[in-house]
Write a structure and sequence with these properties.
alpha+beta, elongated, Rossmann fold, nine-stranded mixed sheet, eight-stranded mixed sheet, 31 strands, single chain, Tachylectin-2, Chain A, about 20% helix
Length: about 750
């Protein structure tokens, strides 16, 4: 071991030993470390069963509370008759303080025909849990079922009202198996958490929508039975957002007392991956209050102007249970502020301390992604070359790992000074992208015209790594693929990153490449890969991370990006993640500020979060005399575009790697073309999602006379090799199964 590294070993071992086994991001952990102090501030129920003969004289539950102009309105579900005969209707009560309510004289204010019950209504709310009107109206969603229907089917419906008394007729069923929804509008998205009653035990699910009518169900439960106190089912989720953190209170039967329910608490940074409070349940029935001695669930929670949280909940007295629910009560948590999160910061007091932290953190993240620790021989095979307009395109096949080979092309200038070494860039690809698609083919030729080499490798599942050689398949996207890879100790993102690392291994075998001047450039999913390369790969000196954000919005994406980011966020904040590239790798993060594909809420939060991460990382770069080497760049009114081919990107490449065939002044003087015109002129069809002026049709690219090369001319495989196991997703997964989880 070299002396300089040997001197760092004690510090390295100390950091490893002191590194906490973090199971939740710091922003979440502070909520999990905070006891909840809910105080009941009434002497009796705020709403009891109705007078004999009224619609709610036997059962009353599911309070839905809104406060507007200082007045509280509480809607609740009520029924008369036996448990078997119950049909719920909705009533309304009014209050000036949220504790003393008076029933509305027109009760019930909403009901369905026949035996259909109105169940667990929820209003559209702001992240703080306050009512949110649209076009002047309240929007209400509710579950309905008939308790005489043996199927037990619950369906979700919507109704609207201007005054909360007169409601529009119920919509047709929007979803099945939905009970107890809670709905927030965050940015441009509607998010719903609900009880899934399709299977036993019941779980909590998530769905999202752009309009509140067409819902897309997240394909897995977000909360399940897994704490000792929970028994039977999970139900009645209530979600609000505070300080950028999602907070959920949910009900379950309580193993500590028979015939009793209580409330648990969980927190999340993305609304999908939840961490439960270790002190659950956080709110329990009070045996000293007979009207709520056994049940405290079906709650409504909101943040009030003074910062306190108030909860309204339904309750039940001790057996025998003639009343399904018996009363509605309230409690307040007056100071729900946890201590500020202590985010782990990269140590910048000295370069040795930073290097030790960087090494430890990279080791953890490599393990989190399942990056193999051993590398098989590349066994590279050249499969010919073509020349177009002063650019040579070499065709190669080499090994990534046992059972997985990569077809690739290497662009390079046809002429260059003798004995010179070229800087090089490895391209990383967006969903459905591969070496032959127009924007990557354009960039490869463009970089070569500037005197660089450019390696473009088909990603797993695309083009020649697809069983039928198809482009744009997204064959690695399905959840089943991610789950099978994860079971073997690998993540899809880890595979994409590892293949990119092997691309650098390949470049380092060549004597015409300057091994000290290698960078990566990618867009969208490829931007995510480029970001991971900047964080993990010490050999690269530059990264263009395009069409991607350093923000928790990226946790609500496809499995291939969501899972690795969840694991990263358990260890780091985005600023620390960006700092991992310091001080040797210069990173420019390029986005269009109108790109709703990445800024999913379309509220600029992805960009403000990215700016925070860059600012924090910038302090690390500055501490080691590398100020200005991390930057966020935005195109005004730009969408999801190939920014890695913009003139601003070329200037960044020039400064970081050098552009032997093109001066900085020449780069700035290059004429430009519109990408839509370029694609139309060359017969290139764009995907419906991206083929718009906001996105790929609106890009402004350097015009150096580049002509697209047809995919067939870019093929590196022989016809008989196409679909072979070593080139496909299925083949890679089968090789993982054969090797076992220790591969």
């Amino acid at each position: 071991m070299p002396p300089n590294l040997r001197n760092l070993l004690p510090l390295f071992l100390l950091l490893v030993s002191l590194a906490p086994a973090v199971s939740a991001p710091a922003e979440i952990q502070v909520w999990l470390d905070t006891p909840q102090h809910w105080r009941r501030d009434t002497d009796g129920p705020i709403l009891s069963l109705g007078e004999p003969g009224t619609f709610d004289d036997t059962h009353i539950f599911a309070p839905m509370v809104a406060v507007e102009d200082g007045r509280y309105r509480l809607w609740h579900c009520g029924s008369t008759g036996s448990v078997a005969e119950r049909v719920f209707r909705m009533g309304l009560s009014i209050s000036d303080d949220g504790r003393r309510f008076t029933r509305h004289p027109e009760n019930p204010v909403y009901e369905l025909s026949g035996a259909r019950s109105v169940l667990t209504p929820t209003l559209l709310r702001t992240p703080a849990g306050l009512p949110l009107r649209e076009n002047g109206s309240l929007r209400m969603w509710f579950s309905t079922t008939s308790f005489t229907d043996k199927s037990g089917l619950h369906t979700l419906h919507e109704a609207s009202s201007e005054d909360g008394v007169s409601w529009a007729p119920a919509s047709p069923a929007l979803m099945k198996n939905v009970y107890a929804p809670t709905i927030l509008k965050t940015g441009r998205h509607y998010q719903m958490w609900h009880t899934d009653v399709s299977t036993t035990p019941w779980t909590i699910r998530h769905a999202s929508s752009m309009d509140g009518r067409k819902w897309r169900l997240t394909p897995y439960p977000v909360l399940e039975l897994d704490q000792d106190w929970e028994k039977g089912n999970l139900f009645y989720p209530t979600v609000i957002q505070k300080g950028g953190v999602y907070l959920m209170w949910y009900g379950a039967y309580w193993t500590g007392r028979p015939n009793t329910t209580a409330l648990g608490f969980a927190a999340s940074i993305d609304g999908l991956q939840w961490h439960k409070h270790p002190g659950n349940p956080v709110f329990e029935p009070d045996p000293a209050r007979p009207w709520e001695s056994h049940y405290t669930t079906s709650q409504s929670i909101m943040q009030l102007p003074d910062g306190s949280l108030r909860m309204w909940y339904a309750s039940r007295k001790k057996p025998p249970f003639r009343n399904k629910y018996f009363a509605i009560n309230t409690a307040v948590w007056e100071k729900p502020e946890p201590k500020p999160a202590r985010l782990a910061a990269a140590p910048i007091e000295s370069l040795p301390a930073f290097r030790a932290w960087q090494s430890v953190t990279r080791t953890k993240l490599n393990a989190a992604l399942g990056i193999p620790s051993k590398r098989a021989p590349l066994a590279p095979e050249k499969r010919g070359e073509i020349e177009r307009d002063g650019v040579v395109i070499e065709k190669w096949v080499f090994t990534s790992e046992p059972g997985s080979r990569i077809p690739a092309v290497l662009y390079r200038p046809a002429e260059r000074p003798a004995d010179s070494r070229m800087p090089a860039i490895v391209l990383t690809f967006g969903h459905g992208g591969s070496k032959s698609q127009w924007q990557y083919n354009f960039a490869g030729q463009l970089y070569a015209r500037m005197g660089l080499a450019c390696l473009a490798m088909d990603p797993l599942g695309e083009e020649e790594r697809h069983a039928k050689g198809r482009l744009g398949t997204r064959a690695h996207d399905p959840r089943s693929v991610s789950e099978r890879a994860e079971k073997a100790g690998r993540l899809i993102m880890g595979k994409l990153v590892f293949d990119t690392m092997r691309g650098i291994d390949f470049l380092e075998t060549r004597e015409d490449i300057d091994h000290d001047k290698i960078g990566v450039a990618g867009n969208s999913l490829g931007g995510a890969v480029a970001g991971w390369m900047a964080a993990l790969e010490p050999r690269i000196k530059m990264a263009l991370v395009c069409g991607w954000a350093y923000h928790d919005i990226s946790l609500r994406t496809k499995f291939c990006t969501m899972l690795p980011n969840q694991r990263m966020r358990q260890l780091l904040g985005w600023g620390e993640y960006a700092s991992l590239a310091a001080p040797d790798c210069a990173v420019m993060i390029m986005n269009g500020d109108a790109d709703w594909v990445i800024d999913r809420e379309d509220d600029k939060s992805a960009w403000t979060g990215t700016d925070r991460a860059v600012k924090q990382a910038g302090r690390t770069y500055e501490a080691f005399d590398a100020g200005g080497q991390v930057r966020a760049w935005y195109e005004a009114d730009g969408g999801h575009r190939p920014y890695f081919a913009y003139k601003d990107a070329l200037e960044w490449i020039h400064r970081q790697l050098g552009t032997p065939a093109m001066s900085l002044d020449r780069i700035r003087e290059l004429p430009t073309l519109n990408s839509g015109d370029y694609c139309d002129r060359n017969g290139i069809r764009l995907e419906r999602l991206y083929g718009t002026p906001l996105h790929q049709r609106g890009a402004t690219l350097p015009d150096v006379g580049i002509r697209p090369i047809p995919p067939g001319e870019m093929a590196a495989l022989r016809p008989d090799e196409l679909g072979s196991a070593e080139f496909t997703v299925a083949g890679w997964l089968n090789s993982l199964d054969a090797r076992g989880p220790a591969n």
